[in-house]
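Subject: Sanity check before I submit

Could someone independently write out the structure tokens for this chain? I want to compare against mine line by line before I put it in a report. The sequence has 274 residues.
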Amino acid sequence: MNLRQCSILVWLLLVFWATAAQAKPLQIPAIQVVPIEESATGRDFELYIKLPEDYDPEGDKTYPVIYIADALWHIEVISGSIEYLVSDAILVGVSWEKDIPTQQSRMRDYMPNKYTGENYEHPTGMASEHLAFFQNDVFRYVESEYKADPARRSYFGYSVSGTFGSYILLTRPETFKNYIIGSPATLFGEQFAHEYEPIAKVIPESIDANVFVSVGADEEPEFIENAISLVHFLKTRKTDTSQVEFRVIEAADHGKAFPASAMHSLYWLSGVPD
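---
Independent answer below. Compare away.
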């Protein structure tokens, strides 16, 4: 190697070193993990909280909040997209109960009716109690610790947690301003939530909430029928100022429909007026 080649090599190394010294390491926005106890039962849960980039704890601005059920499965997809679509939202994922199997917690907390079949020993059908946990503990914590706007709450649920969202929407629609209900499962006994008698008798005459419902085109028939029936029912109860949006995810079964459902719903949410 001659002197000129050595000089060029040294110059390139110096440029590389200077560039590397100025470069910042890859940073993924932090999701805070906050333990929370259900006050009525002493059960332990966790909240997964992500604040928007412009969050100012000292300012006057308040922020909308998206509450995410089945959070461990859903929050990473939503977190990775939210800043492009709903840039000022606080994300609050709500975990399953700690230290018990996931499905045991889901079937107990998200399903409004009890399982009456055989070979299942765990409690089911406690959606009303889980809704009380949201109202008495989750909302109270988030809205006391962060500059969260209680008038701009949104709910995100998919599959069984979509069923839980349907239950809240039909019985206490004022709980959230916006509902995202992806591929809601039927109740135990293959019943639709809006036709299940204990729920049907308390559904208000008008539902003043914005709702996005989705389902995969290749899902099992009961999922498709449930989603279509729910949308038709909601359109009979919506107010003049509320929206009901329905999206069929083409060429997608129950698993594959989730990512597209999440993206379509967030895009829809970005256009819902405050």
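---
OP: Matches mine. For the report I'm noting this point. The first strand starts at residue 32 and ends at 37.
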